Amino acid sequence: MKFVDEFRDAELGRALAAEILAAVEPGHHYKFMEVCGGHTHSIYKYGVDDLLPENVELVHGPGCPVCVIPMGRVDDGIAIAHEPGVIFTCFGDMMRVPGSNGSLLEAKAAGADIRMVYSPLDALRIAKANPDREVVFFAIGFETTAPSTALTLKRARAEGVRNFSCMCNHVTIVPPLRALLDSPDLRLDGFIGPGHVSTVVGARPFEFIPADYGRPVVIAGFEPLDILHAIRMILAQLDEGRCEVQNQYKRVVPWQGNLRALEVMAEVFELRPHFEWRGLGFISQSGLKLSDAYAELDAELRFAVPGVRVADPKACQCGEVLKGVIKPWECKVFGTACTPERPIGTCMVSSEGACAAYYNFGRFAREKEAV
Amino acid sequence: MCLAIPGQIAEIVDETNRLAQVEVAGVRRTINVALLESDRSIVRGDWVLIHVGFAISRIDEEEAHATRLLLEEMGAEYEQELEELKASVIE
Ligand code: SF4
User: Fold this and answer.
1) What is the pLDDT along chain B (91 residues), one digit of tens a residue?
2) Nearest C-alpha to atom 2 of ligand 1 is from which residue?
3) Dist. CA A286 → ligand 1 center (Å)
4) Fewer beta carbons within 10 angstroms: which end of chain B, N or C?
């Protein structure tokens, strides 16, 4: 328990770990999925999994928005970036995500005008400052981020900024969870629900998990103690035969979510019939596109987008990692051909990705030592 | 872009677009606060979590400090997020 001393309240951490140990049934192997990449990060940084009994396993879910962008979308983005007169803007995290023929960073080196922005509003400002250029914003993220893009598009339309458009890659959190629950390779006992996404969507969208699949969900904060506490709450539900959505992160997440944010999203976006997820394949009604009212700001309609579908590289096992079927270090190229400097798969790109989290915190070395 | 970082509202600078100056780790930047204003307006002194230039939740001061500590312990990623925020010019 060497990491517990780094917790804000080490004593509480020890107490929770002891309660968890007391609550598990020795013969049962528990698998809990933490949906959000922020949780994955905290778990590795603080060694939360080292505090858990052997028979409690944490599976890393698909909640890192960078990790789920398929190669075809990166390729499409690069194609737009190479169009004459285009300034292509995206979050810094997207720059190194590999497409089938290099990343946005490589496209930039090859001469495309690609700029990193902190906010979609920065992209809009760039558009207003460059009226003779076409400025495209490559939007990514779950419901945490989508309302920000939506408000930016609302403003662009209200102000009549004609040279601004958005390539929308926003995704929604519920469909991939349902897909995972339907997947035969995976048996989960409960979910640590995502913190920030829930500030927008609230707790209600997760109610199908206990209702249809009989699994508890506890929405959790990002401190290691929050995660331990959530695991304790899931175990209590299992122990008492309860099954429901609970909110451990009340101090930030309102049960009903953010109605204003949901309203703006509903106005600006509509569901795509299908959207491809890296490693998970096509999931129906899981991605957002601009609604008809905003079609004039849709980069996919303004530019010729190849829209080709590219299979994930053979060596890449991101899909299995995203589904929690294998641990990052079990991927054949982990830490050798695939590193944060030269990622093959997306889980290695963002610090929230399971592979990068393992790699950065030296978990690979530790697992090897243990073998 | 996945981080949500705490900041304190210093002043509203654009009433129409609901832009506010916010103080984050010693720097002042402009963010949009419209997402949090369905029940009451954001005012000077409020603490919020900021994500990609937008306030996404109201928090209390204690939570803001706890979150800041957690982020500071992250090291490189938080530094980078702050760098990106510093480079941001929202108008
Ligand atoms: S090591 Fe690389 S290729 Fe393998 S699963 Fe992780 S990110 Fe994907």
Assistant:
1) 678 999 999 999 999 999 999 999 888 999 999 999 877 889 999 999 999 999 999 999 998 998 888 888 877 888 888 889 988 999 9
2) A345
3) 23
4) C
pTM: 0.91
Same domain? A190 vs A51: yes
Q: Is residue A114 part of a domain?
A: yes
Angle at A246 between CA A240 and CA A248, to 5 degrees: 115
Interval A291-301 mean pLDDT: 97
Indicate if A148 and A294 belong to the same structural domain: yes
A114-116: strand order across its sheet: A114-116, A86-90, A134-141, A164-170
DSSP B31-80: EE-GGG-SSS---TT-EEEEETTEEEEEE-HHHHHHHHHHHHHHTHHHHH
What ipTM did this prediction achieve? Answer: 0.93
Yes or no, beta carbons of B1 and A64 under 8 Å apart: no
Domains in chain B, start-ordered, CATH in brackets? 5-87 (2.30.30.140)
Same domain, residue pair A38 and A126: no
Query: B6 to chain A, minimum CA–CA distance in Å?
Result: 11
Determine, yes or no, domain membership for A308: no
A38 vs B3: CB contact, 8 Å cut-off?
Answer: yes
Domain with A196, as residue range(s), is: 4-66+185-247
CA distances for A365 relative to A174, A272, A346, A359, A368, angstroms: 34, 42, 21, 9, 5
Among A9, A48, A199, the strongest candidate for a mutation testing the B interface, having the largest count of B CBs within 10 A, is A199
pLDDT at A147: 97
Separation of alpha carbons A78 and A76, rounded Å? 5
What is the whole-number distance in angstroms between the Cα of residue A331 and the centre of ligand 1? 6
- Per-residue model confidence as pLDDT tens digits over A101-140: 899 999 999 999 999 999 999 999 999 999 999 999 999 9
Segment A258-274 mean pLDDT: 95
Domain membership flag for residue A180? no
In a shared domain, residues A160 and A267: yes
Q: Does B5 touch chain A (CB under 8 A)?
A: no
Q: Helix (H, G, I), strand (E, B), or coil: what is residue A217?
A: strand
Same domain as A193, residue A126: no
- B72 and chain A in contact, CB less than 8 A: no
> Looking at the domain assignment, is residue A90 inside a domain?
yes
The structural domain count of chain A equals 3
Predicted pLDDT at A350? 76
